[in-house]
Amino acid sequence: MILTTRRLSVLALALALPLAASAADYKVGPGSTLGFSGKFQGQQFDGTFGKFDAGTISYDAANLAASKFDVTVDMATAKTGDGDRDAALPGSDFFDTKKFATAHYVTTGFSKNAKGDVIANGNLTLHGVTKPVALKVAFSPNAGGARLSVTGTLKRLDFGVGGGEYKDTSTIADDVLVNGSLNLLPK
Questions:
Q1: Which of 76, 77, 163, 171 has a beta carbon 3.0–4.6 Å from 51's, enabling a disulfide?
Q2: Pairwise CA distance, residues 110 & 119, whole Å
Q3: 36 C-beta neighbours (distance < 10 Å), count
Q4: Which SS3 state, helix, strand or coil, does residue 136 take?
Q5: Are 58 and 71 in contact (CB under 8 A)?
Q6: What is the pLDDT of residue 22?
Q7: Both ends of the chain: CA-CA distance in Å?
Q8: Cα–Cα distance between 20 and 10 in angstroms, integer?
């Protein structure tokens, strides 16, 4: 009887381990936003992307190693509310959406900084260039799913965004804040 109880305990543990290692899978729900902020001639402007696809959002705050983000952004849907700027963004001096229709971010891992904030470390491919980008993550579960917020800063010139006269960082700042506020629903 002792041998059978031990076998059952080992079997139960073996079955539970894969469950402990998996993160919850989510899809992006209504009301989610993905945006950016920059400075033009010293004045802040904000923009949003009207279309993005989260192919994978898996998150487990207790087991960050099992978490993953994989998001693709339709760059032609960038809007700032300024007609001239919105007309210029898809062009060859900025996003060049005819050649580079999408941006793609995929995590390589998660960590915590000295303050205890969760950081998503990943690679962003934008304008044909892939560079590491770290995003601060805030995750809040709720009854119907979760709320996920991400923020981080990238240097636009590292990705070749803003060519010609727009390389001048006194006109358009190099730092661009990216931010997302996603309503997550269980998959």
A1: 77
A2: 6
A3: 19
A4: strand
A5: no
A6: 64
A7: 42
A8: 15
| Chain segment 49-103, per-residue pLDDT in tens | 999 998 899 999 999 999 999 999 999 999 999 999 999 999 999 999 999 999 9
For 53-90, give the DSSP string. EEEEEEE-TT-GGG-EEEEEEEGGGEE-S-HHHHHHTT
Give Cα 171 distance to the centre of its chain. 27
| Gap between the Cα atoms of 164 and 76, Å rounded | 20
Structure tokens at 120: 């998503």
Q: Give the integer Cα–Cα distance in Å for 4 and 2.
A: 5
The pLDDT tens digits for 9-48 are: 443 434 443 444 468 999 999 999 999 999 999 999 999 9
Q: What is the CA radius of gyration of the chain?
A: 20
Residues 136, 151 contacting (CB under 8 angstroms): yes
CA distance 134 to 176: 13
With CA atoms as reference, report the closest residue to 100 among 125, 80, 120, 66. Answer: 125
